[in-house]
Amino acid sequence: MKTSIQWTDRMAFAGVTPSGHEIKMDAAEEVGGVNSGARPTELLMNAVAGCTGIDIISILKKMRLEPDSFQMDVEGERADDHPKKFTDIHIHYSLEGDLPEDKVVRAIQLSKDKYCSVSHSLSANITASYSINGQKGEKEL
Question: What gap in Å lies between CA 61 and CA 64, rounded to an integer?
Answer without folding.
Answer: 5
